[in-house]
Amino acid sequence: MGDRKKSPIEERKQQYKDYLDKTDVTSQVREALLKLIENQPKDPMLFLANYFDNISTSDKSDKITTVHQILQLTHHSQQSFQTNLIVAYDAASLAKNPNSKKASMNRPGLTGSVFEELLATILSNVPKNLHATLLERIGCRASEMVPFGVFRYCITVCYVFVDFVKLCGSIFSVLCGKQSGKVTDKDICEIVISSLKDALDSLQDDNSPCSILEAAYVLRPDKLASSLLSNKSSKTDKSTMNEDDFMKEMIDVFTSKIKVLK
Amino acid sequence: MAGSSPSGDEMSSTDYLARHNVLLYVEDAISQLLEYKDENAKIIHGKFLADYFRSVHKGTHTMFREFEYVRATPHNRSCFIKSVWSCFRHIASHGELLSVKEYHSLLCLLCNDFPLDVVQRTARIVLMDDALDCLMSFVDFLYAFQIQFYYEEFVNACKEAYDHLLMASPTVVVPSTESWTQTKASTTETENVARLNEGVNSQTFFDVMEKTCGKLSQFTKRPSLQHIHSELSKLPKVTFYGLLTALSKNDDINAEIGSLPCHDCMLDGSDVDIILK
């Protein structure tokens, strides 16, 4: 096979190609695109920016950060979240030191302590007093090993919880309306809280789509509006409720429905 | 880094990538990286790429880039328009009037190979194709520039529709429309000139334009038909540049594009606001 003399442009192209391969840019970009297609975020540019940010800091990051990043790639309602859960579980279960001779170091599996730390990271944006009750229910002892089913359930609950807290916050501001200060009529709040409680209580244990729809029906806008309006007329004593108490009560309703695992 | 919020159904990978012009940006990112590494020995690839994509996300990526890149995607075009506004808005507050060549020089400061042709077409919109050496205000120029540059393909399709109507025989039969105008024969030269000045029947124009625009790719941006129709329905007859001027002054279309503030708010706020928005 004779030596074909390459034109300067072809040589240059080959040089660049080799450079990109050598510095891992090619494989990184390929990975990034695969993740992008899998997760289909609304803002691909921001997704890619965050992805490459994480790559450049990944040498220093620990297991928890890596796993957390994997879980953050997409919203929990998306199909690709299920795939990410599996990848995250595998990453979290990596043995601390596969080459170690000590048995405790080279055994793979998700330990309770890693699991608890992960939950704490996910819930880090929620004030401690609000998520304490949730952690009581789904936390586990440090020495226990966590199977995938439990992992999936708890992680999903955490993310739903984070969304729920945000939602409660915005409900409260809506109830406050144009009033300044973070307080509003206690009765209105109680009605909202009890509506949620009724809806969740009516949810039968089988979690069939039918019962979920029925529960959601209890929360329909016109029913809520009519119960709020009917309260308006019977008002003699105006007691108020502030945001913390409202949040706490709503969260209690939420957590009462979570299976106790501890 | 926040997880994305729930969104609608997933589309095919090729559609998703095409809709967001992902491959174009990735290719450009890599070319920029290769160019950069030739001049700078020390480079952290992950950080460079992260910075690139972040600047695309923020909209600062079109400054001082070549025209081919600026024109390449709707996002690039709208970011460029926004940069023109934020960099030169003080001209508006001083109320200066500038010529075509002067606006071209300004644009070349931000994009050194920006073609004069685009600026000239913008001038035609502002000046209604008349007295093209007239001076223009910055505000008029900017909104007309937005229509000409952001909706370039749509404007060309519109012109095609308009020319078709002008050159066609007086009996214009547009199949499958409900209201077409059938005027009498005899095309004299005076009539032609009159038609050039008066324009064409608005409803017919809308119908033909709808068809021509239908041929554009699904990813090409165009103003929503509802807003075009609302402008066309204001007058029975319309000229090509009359329509474009009307579109440039339409606040709904401006809001759709999302680069510039509404006409009344043009001079509000300080420069800090623009950069942070």
UniProtKB/TrEMBL annotation, chain A:
It comes from Phallusia mammillata. CDD domains: DD_TPGS1. This is Tubulin polyglutamylase complex subunit 1-like. It holds the Pfam family TPGS1_C. PANTHER family: TUBULIN POLYGLUTAMYLASE COMPLEX SUBUNIT 1. It comes from the Eukaryota. Signal peptide: none annotated. InterPro entries: DD_TPGS1 (IPR047502), TPGS1 (IPR039235), TPGS1_C (IPR057632).
